[in-house]
Write a structure and sequence with these properties.
- Two copies of one chain form a homodimer.
- The longest helix of chain A is centred in the middle third of the chain and has 13 residues.
- The first copy, chain A, is built from five helices and four strands.
- The radius of gyration of chain A is 16 Å and the shape is elongated.
- The first copy, chain A, has a three-stranded antiparallel β-sheet.
- The first copy, chain A, is an alpha+beta fold.
- The relative contact order of chain A is 0.21.
- Helix content of chain A is about 45%, strand content about 20%.
- Chains A and B meet through helix 1, helix 2, strand 4 and helix 5 of A and helix 1, helix 2, strand 4 and helix 5 of B.
- Chain A binds a DNA duplex (30 and 30 nucleotides) through helix 4 and strand 3.
- Chains A, B: GO terms for molecular function: DNA binding; DNA-binding transcription factor activity.
Chain lengths: ~100, ~100
DNA sequence: TCCACGTGTAAGAAAAAGCTTACATGTGAT
DNA sequence: ATCACATGTAAGCTTTTTCTTACACGTGGA
C-alpha cells in the first residue's frame, strides 16, 4: 500500500461526518442533495466532504442525466478494504512523500 | 468495533507524523527523547502526538527507572489490527456518540 | 415567467490542530 | 555548584479544517 494514499484514506475517514457518509453509502447509492437531507447537513458541506472521500478513492461518483433531463450526481462507497496494523503502516511509510514542499 | 474508538484510532493515524511514529515503534520500543531525535522533531511535539496515540490505544507507554535512577519513558506500538471496509465502518457508526454536546 | 429542484463554487467566520519557545522538575557525573 | 540528560506542561503563534451564507448555472412544470 502506498504511503500517500494510505494517509489520504485515513485522514479522510478520521472525521465523524465522513465516517457517517461512508457508512450511509455502504452498498447503497444515493444522490447528493438527498444524502445531505438524510444526514442533516448542508449541501455545500457535504460536497466538501465528498471531494475529500473521492480524492481518497473511498467513494465513487456518477453524474447521470435523469429521464427528465436533469443532472443528478450519485455517490456510493467504493469497495475498499484496508488492513491496519503497526506492520502494514511501517511498510507504507517509505513511500510517504509528505515532507514540507521542497521549493 | 466501537464507533468512538474507531474514530479516535483513524483520526490519530491520519497524520503523517503520527503514522511515522507508529511505523518507527512497530515491534521496537524506544524512549521518548531518543525517538524525537530519530524523527527529527521537537520533544514537546512528539509528546503531544504520543498522547493522541496513547489515548487511541495505538501506542503503549512504560515509565521505567533506569539502573542509574533516571526516569525514562519507553513507548511501543500496541498490537492493533483494524479491518476497514464500508461495512465495518457502517457497523461501528451506531455507537458513535460524537454529536455536538447536547446541553 | 417564475418556481422547484438538481448541480458547483467562492468568500469569510469559527474552531481545531500543529508546532515552537520557554519554563519547571528530578537524577547522576564532573 | 554546574552540566548533561531525562521528564512534563503552559502559552502563543500559525496553519489547516470545518462550516455557513450567498451566488452562479441548467432543467421541467405550473
Amino acid at each position: 500500500m502506498n504511503g500517500d494514499r494510505l494517509l489520504a484514506a485515513l485522514s479522510a475517514l478520521g472525521n465523524p461526518q465522513r465516517m457517517r457518509i461512508v457508512a450511509t453509502l455502504a452498498g447503497r447509492r444515493q444522490y447528493v442533495s438527498q444524502l445531505a437531507r438524510e444526514l442533516g447537513i448542508s449541501r455545500p458541506l457535504l460536497h466538501m466532504h465528498l471531494q475529500r472521500l473521492e480524492a481518497a478513492d473511498l467513494v465513487t461518483a456518477d453524474l447521470e442525466i435523469s429521464d427528465s433531463g436533469k443532472a443528478v450526481k450519485y455517490v456510493e462507497a467504493a469497495p475498499f478494504a484496508l488492513h491496519l496494523t503497526p506492520e502494514t503502516i511501517a511498510r507504507a511509510i517509505p513511500t510517504l512523500t509528505e515532507q514540507k514542499e521542497q521549493k
